[in-house]
Design goal:
There is one protein chain. By secondary structure, this protein is mostly beta strands. The protein has one helix at about 145-155, and strands at about 1-10, 15, 20-30, 35-40, 40-50, 55-60, 65-75, 80, 90-100, 105-110, 115-120, 125-130, 135, 140-145. The longest helix has 11 residues, at about 145-155. The chain is globular.
C-alpha cells in the first residue's frame, strides 16, 4: 500500500498483514511501548522512528526488507527478537541509530559514503552492520556475527554484492 505519514500512538499495535507486499511510507513514527508486526515483504520508508520499549516483529516468518533514509530505534526497542537474522534487512542511506539497550536480529547495510551508524550503550545486534562513513559503538554494545549471519547476508544481498564479511574486519578507535 501507499501511505503518507504513519503514526502509532503509545501502547498501540500496527500490523502490516499482506505477505510479500510492497509498502511505501513517508514516515513511520511509533510512540512508547508500540508493537509493529511486519509481514514478509518490501518496505520503503523515508524516516522510521520508534520510541522506547517498542518491538518490531517479523510475522509470519519470512524476509522483511526495509529501505529507509533514516532509522532511529529508541531505548529498549527489540527488533526481530529471537528471530532469524536472515529475515530482517535494513538498507539505510543517511543514518541508523540503535539507542541504549536496543536489540536487533538482522542485517543493516549503509552503502552511502556519508551514512552514519550509531549503536548505544548496552545495545546488542545478532547479525551484521556493513558500511557507513562512521560507526560508533557505545559502552558494552555488542555485535554477534557467525556462520548463520554470513549465510543470511549472502541470501539477502546476493553472493558478492558487498564483498566478503569476516569477523574481525574492523578498526577500533580510542
Amino acid at each position: 500500500g501507499n501511505y503518507g505519514d504513519i503514526t502509532v500512538g503509545n501502547n498501540a499495535t500496527l500490523t502490516f498483514s499482506e505477505s510479500n507486499g510492497t509498502y511505501y511510507a513517508k514516515s513511520l513514527n511509533g510512540g512508547s511501548n508500540v508493537t509493529i508486526n511486519m509481514a514478509p515483504g518490501t518496505y520503503y520508508i523515508d524516516d522510521m522512528d520508534l520510541g522506547s520499549n517498542g518491538t518490531i516483529v517479523v510475522t509470519p516468518s519470512g524476509v522483511v526488507k526495509i529501505y529507509a533514509k533514516t532509522v532511529d530505534l529508541g531505548d529498549n526497542v527489540a527488533v526481530n527478537d529471537g528471530g532469524d537474522p536472515g529475515n530482517l534487512y535494513f538498507l539505510v542511506h543517511t543514518s541508523l541509530t540503535m539507542e541504549n539497550n536496543a536489540s536487533m536480529v538482522g542485517v543493516a547495510i549503509a552503502p552511502d559514503s556519508s551514512a552514519n551508524i550509531d549503536v548505544g550503550d548496552n545495545a546488542t545486534l545478532y547479525g551484521a552492520m556493513i558500511g557507513g562513513s562512521t560507526t560508533t559503538m557505545g559502552s558494552n554494545a555488542t555485535i554477534t556475527f557467525d556462520a548463520t549471519v554470513q549465510s543470511a547476508i549472502e541470501a539477502l544481498t546476493g553472493s558478492g554484492s558487498y564483498g566478503s564479511v569476516t569477523p574481525g574486519s574492523w578498526q577500533e578507535q580510542y
